[in-house]
Write a structure and sequence with these properties.
By secondary structure, this protein is mostly beta strands. It has one domain (3-162): Jelly Rolls. 7% of the residues lie in helices and 41% in strands. It has 1 helix and 12 strands. The chain has one helix at residues 12-23; strands at residues 35-40, 42-49, 53-60, 69-70, 74-82, 84-88, 93-97, 101-104, 111-114, 120-128, 140-141, 160-166. The strands form 4 sheets. It has a 5-stranded antiparallel β-sheet. The longest helix is centred in the N-terminal third of the chain and has 12 residues, at 12-23. It is globular. The two termini are 20 Å apart.
């Protein structure tokens, strides 16, 4: 899939379809960090995928957040490219701003919210544990039950895109 044709995933099935297409590539993947900014909701733009790693550009409207969760089969990082967020675990709150990052080892519980007036834009890079299925969400809630990132339980709201772009 050419970088210029990438569109934000609107559903978990969209995300998996794009990732499956990307994972078939056995050569270098080139991408540009560009995304349409949301007025409401969040976007998930898969940039590159292999059988063990995934790279996404994610955007969150001002005030956007998610629910406490963990990824038991994936280590991942977020790097803030625009805006600011507060990351929460089960005992600490940490503000991350432009060019700050957070590393989340598999199984670490966290949630975050946007705390800037402008939309939050983050690069997300994840590496799957050996034997994990890259095409499964693998997200669990605080009670250990599966929880889709595209669910109301994870504070998903309808996406409304602005005319503004991050690039």
């Amino acid at each position: 899939m050419a970088a210029s044709s990438l569109q934000p995933a609107r559903t978990l099935d969209d995300l998996y379809t794009q990732m499956k297409e990307q994972a078939q590539n056995r050569g270098p993947s080139f991408f540009h960090l560009r995304a349409q900014l949301p007025l409401q909701g969040r976007t998930h733009l898969p940039l590159a995928t292999s059988d063990r790693m995934r790279v996404w550009l994610k955007t969150y409207a001002s005030g956007g957040e998610n629910e406490l969760h963990a990824h038991p089969l994936e280590d991942h990082i977020f790097v803030v490219l625009q805006g600011a967020a507060e990351f929460y675990d089960r005992g600490e709150i940490r503000r991350v701003e432009k060019l700050d990052g957070v590393f989340l080892p598999r199984g670490a519980f966290y949630w975050f919210k946007t705390v800037s007036d402008e939309p939050l834009v983050m690069l997300r890079v994840g590496a799957m544990a050996p034997g994990a299925d890259l095409m499964k969400d693998g997200r669990i809630s605080a009670n250990g039950q599966p929880m889709s990132g595209f669910s109301a339980e994870n504070k998903e709201v309808p996406l409304i895109l602005s005319e503004r772009w991050f690039e």
